[in-house]
Give the backbone structure.
Amino acid sequence: MKVCVSIAGSDSGGGAGIQADIKSMQANGVFAASVITAITAQNTLAVERAYELPAEWVTAQIDAVYDDLPIAAAKTGMLASAGIIEAVAGKVRERAIAPLVVDPVMVSKSGYALLRDDAVDTLVSQLLPLATLITPNAFEAERMVGFAVRTRGDAERAARTLHAGGPQWVLVKGGHLDEPGRAVDVLFDGQRFEYFESERVSTPHTHGTGDTYASAIAANLARGFDMSNAVSRAKRYVTEAIRHGLAIGGGHGPTHHFYFLDQTPVFPYARDKEA
């Protein structure tokens, strides 16, 4: 089994962050390791508090994981501060970490800042040039490129702008674009665009969607799929995880990372007990 690692923040509610990354990676056929950058106190309603780990604790975790495990792909999520970004970027260079999927997590669904304002430039200048793929949503893309991203044409322009900063691939996610009834993601490799389209599932239970998607892509890259197929497989997976989202808690419930187990039970003892 291939091994992936997520470098991200912890979500005490279990729906996003490291917890979502681990579930998504395992559901997509790899073993998941983790490097925690921050601890959040959150649930389906809101992020209430966040504590950033010292950068040396982040790099110590990276070293521990890479010293022992055969990591086939890595994914970053909440990095919180410029200091943590610089530390992670240093380890990416030192360890030649690749493929690397960078999900530029900035703000929670409740509006809590997960990346300091003064760290956005550091993310763009230090980490994006090292990325195999970056996966911003429309709002994150806007913040990095400085212009509105509302349409497919805007997404294409943002992808071109971001690609000029150094990543090998850019995937601008279309969940917030003006595409009625459809979610169209735009992938750009510097030469051509590719589009990944699905229905826009009408549900409030989308907590952790971005983490889940990026982690699924990383898992599929680790398994040897090329970028187009890795994104396509992850897109199908996350769409179904959203469709089967869980009405847990009083706010935005999580996506259902193991929805397929409901359809194809794999635990004979559990089935016997239910019978």
